[in-house]
Amino acid sequence: MVEHRSQQDWLDVEQYLNRTLIKADEALAQAVSTAQQAGLPPIEVAPTAGKFLMLLARISGARRVLEIGTLAGYSTIWLARGLPEDGRVISCEFLAQHAAVAQENIDRAGVGHKVEIRLGPALETLETLQGEFDLVFIDADKTNNVNYLRRALKLSRPGTVIVVDNVIWEGQFLDPAASGDELAIRETLEFLGATEELEATAIQTASSKGWDGFAVVVVK
Ligand code: SAH
Ligand code: DHB
Ligand code: MG
What number of other Cβ atoms are within 10 A of residue 130's Cβ? Predict the structure, then answer.
């Protein structure tokens, strides 16, 4: 019989996974602590999710990565570490303070040569980009997710991998009266399911970040 598990269990398991599977890393720890000191919101991906992004970059053989939503560079560092030495991450961020904290963290992690932060509203930045990306990580303002996906499709090739963070968000998108971010999440999932050029799934997660999840998508 499957019993309901309390959040304490998820936290115990997460801590176990973190110490068992993820090497202690000073640069990543500092990316989190400097963000906290600067008053940035603690909304970076969990360590297991960050490592998932790194593994996905490696598994897909990515060289060119697009990230939408830099914050303090935590996920950016993981992505950059999944790339070969000549790989590049372009990361979009519209708050100068976030970009400044992120640049320091990225440099401290030794991946500055692989990362270019583009300051400005992401939709505007995306309009200036050309060519094909191998991997796209969408993790910014949820109300633009569908716009980001449409634009990402234009910057893709068959086989491009897209990950969209926060597509579960405590499940509130199921409420027929959902609005704002929650409605945007439902529209994101419906767009992923209905778009002929995309093949998508979504994985629910339980962690110190609460009940959430991410979509994994491939361009057909
Ligand atoms: N990917 C990061 C977390 C990103 S949090 C990590 O896991 O470490 C979301 C970020 O997106 C915030 O820094 C926020 O300032 C930025 N953001 C929100 N709306 C944006 C927009 N329209 N254009 C660019 N950046 C945006
Ligand atoms: C929020 C945003 C995120 O990208 C996330 O992973 C968690 C929370 C937020 O805006 O609250
Ligand atoms: Mg997120």
Answer: 7
Residue 1 Cα to ligand 3 middle (Å): 33
- SS3 per-residue string spanning 93-146: ECCHHHHHHHHHHHHHCCCHHHEEEEECCHHHHHHHCCCCCCEEEECCCHHHHH
Does the beta carbon of 94 sit less than 6 angstroms from any atom of ligand 1? yes
| Candidate of 141, 166, 209 to mutate for ligand 1, largest count of ligand atoms within 8 Å of Cβ | 141
What span, in angstroms and rounded, lies between the C-alpha atoms of 90 and 70? 10
166 within ligand 2 shell (Cβ under 6 A): yes
At 13-61, the pLDDT tens digits run 999 999 999 999 999 999 999 999 999 999 999 999 999 999 999 999 9
pLDDT digits (tens, 9 = 90+) for 117-149: 999 999 999 999 999 999 999 999 999 999 999
Bridge partner residues of 117 (DSSP): 91
The SS3 assignment for 165 reads: strand
Do 160 and 134 meet the contact criterion of CB atoms below 8 Å apart?
yes
CA distance 67 to 140: 9
What's the pLDDT score for residue 113? 98
Cα separation, 44 vs 31, in Å, equals 10
What's phi and psi for 117, nearest 5 deg? -85, 130
> Quick check: 47 and 81 in contact, CB under 8 A?
no
Q: Is 43 in the pocket of ligand 2 (CB under 6 A)?
A: yes
